[in-house]
Amino acid sequence: MVKTHNPPGSAEGRHDDTAGRVYGVARGSARGSSAVPPASAARRRRKPRATAGSGRLAALLVSPTLLVLTIVVLYPTIVALKDSLFGTPGLNPKTGFVNETDPFVGAQNYTDIFGAAGERFWNAFWNTSFLTVTTVGMETVIGVAMALIMNRAFQGRALVRASILVPWAIPTAVTGLLWRWIFNSNGIANALIGQQVLWTTEGFHAKVAVIIADVWKTAPFIGLLVLAGLQVINKEVYEAAKIDGAGAVRQFWSITLPLVKPALMVAVLFRTLDALRMFDLPYILIGAQKESVETLSMLAQDQAANVRFGPAAAYAVILFLYVFLIALAFVRLLGANVVGDDDAAPKRRRRWLPVRRPAEVAA
Amino acid sequence: MKTRTTRALQSSGAAAVALAALAACGAGGGTEAPAGQSASFEGRGPITYAAGKDPSGVVQPTIDRWNKLHPKEKVTFIQLPTDPDAQRQQMIQNAQTKSDAYTVLSLDAVWTSEFAAHRWIDRLPADGFPLQKMLKPIVETGKYRGGLYALPWTSDGGMLYYRTDLLKKAGIDKPPATWVQMKSDCAKVKKLPEAKGMSCYAGQFQKYEGLTVNFAEAVNSAGGVVTDAKGKPHVDSPQAKKGLDFLVGSLKDGTIPKDAVTYQEEDGRRAFQAGKLIFERNWPYMYPLASKKDGSSKIVGKFSAAPLPGLSGPGASSLGGHNVALSASAKNKATAIDFMKFFTSAENQRLTLASAPAAPTYEALYKDPKLVEQYPYLPILKQSILHAVPRPRVFEYGDVTAAIQRETYAAMTGSKSTDQALKDLQKDLQRQPAAD
C-alpha cells in the first residue's frame, strides 16, 4: 500500500528534505536549460551586451521546444477550458434543426455536478478513485514481490524476467478482450471457481474483474522499475546487516525498502496517474455505460460521443485537476523524485540517509 | 538579465498562442446554412464514399464498376473503423470541421435523425429515387420529420430461429406466433430426452445496443411503442409493460437462461449452434453461418427461421441496416447524387447479395427465385421487415438508447421492478425535445 501519512517525528526531517530537493530542482533546471551566467556577473553589468545576447540566444534555442509544447499541450488545454464554459445547443422545435451556436453557460457545467445530475459524475469519481487505490495497492505489493524474485540469482532467471514482463507488453485493448473471454459466463474463471458468476453484468464482481485484469497487466511495470532500484543497492550493505544479526524480514524493512523507495515512489506515482485515467480496460472488458465500472475518462468520452462537448470538457478538466493534485501530493508529501535532480541530490541523500532511516523503519 | 530571458520566452510563447488562436478561428467560423430545404446539387468530379470496414468485400467491386463507367467522376472508398461508434465519431468530426473529405456517408439507420437535425447531411429530393419499390418500413429509417435524408442500402430484421427437428419430434407442426405458444412449445420439447439441459429462448440482453433492439421489439410486439412518430415517449403504457414483463418474466421462470444477460449476437449464435437453445432471436447473418458444414455448427439442417412471436400474434422486429447520405460540407454533389442512385439500385443490391448475406431494400429481390434458393430465409425476413418498427427516431439517439439500456438492464437483473423501470424510463425520455 501507498503510505499516506507521515509518522510523527519524521515529518520535519522529511519536509526539509523535500523543500531542499524542490529548490534543487528549480536551480538545476534553471542552470540546465537556459544557461544563465552567474547572477553576480549580471548584477555588476560588466558585459551587458554579451549577456543580453546570450539570453536572446537561449530564448531562441528553447523556442522550438516551447512552440511544440504550446501547440500540443497549452493550446488544447486552453481550448478545453474554453469549451467547458459552453453548453449544448438546443433543438429548434419549429425547424427540427439543432441551433448552430453553442450557448455560453459559464461555470454551469461545473456546478451541475453538485446538483441532481451530478449522480453519474460522483459515481464515476468514486469508481475512478476506488479502482486506483485498489489496483495500485495490489500492484505495488505484487510488483515488489516480483522484483525481489527477479533480483535473485537462480537458474532460468532470464526466462522468469521475460515471462513476467509479457502482460505488460500486451496492448490494453487486447488485454481487455483476453479477459473478457476468461470472464465469459462459460469462461475459465467460472470453471475454476465452480460457480456461474456473470462478471460482465453490473455489480461489485465487475469491479473485481477489472481489478484482476489491471493488476495482472501492470504489476510487472512496478516490478521492473523496482528491480532497477534493487540492482543498484550495494551488496555490502546486506553483508554488514547479516553480520549484525539482522534477519531477512528486518533486512527487507530496514535496508531494501528504504533504499528502493525512490524507484518505488516513481513507479507508484506513474501507476497512480495512469490508473486515474483508466479507460480502455473497463470499456472493453465490461462495456460502456456500466455504472459499476464507469470511470471519469469513460464519462468524458461518453459525453463527447453524444456531441456534448461542454460537459465532456468540464469532466476532462476536473479529471486533469484531480490527477494534478494527486501528483503534487505525491511529490510534496511522499517525496517522489520524478524530475531527478542531477548533482545535488545524491550528496544530500547520502547525508540524510542516517537521519532518515529510522523514520523509514517507523513508517 | 534573468527577467529579460523570461520575457523573451514569454513573448515567443505568446506568439505561438496567438498563432494557435488564429488557426482556431479559421476552423471555427461557420456560416448559417439555409433551413435544410433540399438544395440544388451542383458540381461534378471525384468524390469519396466513407463507410465502416467492409469484411464481405462487396463495396470495392461496386465502386470499381462505377469508376469504369464514370472515369471523370471517380469514387474513392474511405474505410472507417469496424466499430460503429468510431465510424460515427469520425463522421461527426468531418462534419464539425466542415471538411469535404467525405462525400457520401454510410449511416447506421439509427443515426439518420441526429445527422439530419445537426444539418450534417443534406435533405434529398424524394422524387429522384425509386422509393416506392422499396419496403416501406425501411424507407422510414431514412426520414427525419417527413423529409428524406438517407437512401436505404441494406436493411436488417430480427427473426426467430428454431430447431425444426425438436419441434417435429414433440409433435409441433409450425413455429410459434405468440409468446405463450413459444413457452408451451418449449415445455413440450423439454420433455424429450434430446432436449436435456437445453434452454428455451435467448436474444441480445447484454447492456449495449442489442438490448435496445430487443426491448423495442418486445414493446412493439405487445402492441406498444417506445416513441411515437413525433418522438414522444410512451413506455409507461400497459402494452410496454407487457413487453418488458415478457423479458423479465422469462428470465425469472428460466425460459431465458440466466447468463443471457451477458449475450451479444455472437454469444447467442454460439449457444444456438452448440445445441443449447430451442429458440433464438437473431439477425439474418446467422443463417449461412449456422448452416456451415465445417463442424462449427452442430445443427446444420436442423433449424429454420420464422417471424418473431408477439403477445397476441406475430411480433414486430426492430430495423437495422445502413443508409447512404450526402455530407452537407461535401463538393461535387451532383456526382454524389448519381452515385447514390447507382449504389442503392436493385441491380447493385442483387449483385451484392449474391456474394454476401444482407437484407435488400427492394421488395422484388425478396421474391427472386435464385436469391431465395441461396437464402431460404428471404420470404420470412420480408414478413419480419414488413411488420418492423424503426427504433426511436430522435436526434439525441445516444441518450435515448443509453436510458433504455440502463432501465431495461436494471429490470432484467432484478434491481428494479418493471413498473419502476418503465416509470423512470418515461421520465428520462421526456427530457428529449419532441416535435410540435
Give structural notes:
Chain A: Keywords: Cell membrane, Membrane, Transmembrane, Transmembrane helix, Transport. Chain A: It is found in: Cell membrane. Chain A: It is a multi-pass membrane protein. Chain A: Belongs to the binding-protein-dependent transport system permease family. The complex is a heterodimer of chains A (363) and B (436). Chain A contains 15 helices and no strands. Chain A is mostly helical and 363 residues long. In chain A, helix 9 packs across helix 11. The longest helix of chain A has 36 residues. Chain A is globular. With 436 residues, chain B is an alpha/beta fold. Chain B folds into 2 domains: 177 residues, 3-Layer(aba) Sandwich (D-Maltodextrin-Binding Protein, domain 2); 200 residues, D-Maltodextrin-Binding Protein, domain 2. In chain B, 43% of the residues lie in helices and 13% in strands. In chain B, a hairpin with a 2-residue loop joins strand 4 and strand 5. In chain B, helix 8 packs across helix 16. The longest helix of chain B is centred in the first third of the chain and has 27 residues. Chain B is globular. Chains A and B meet through helix 3 of A and helix 1, helix 3, helix 4 and helix 16 of B.
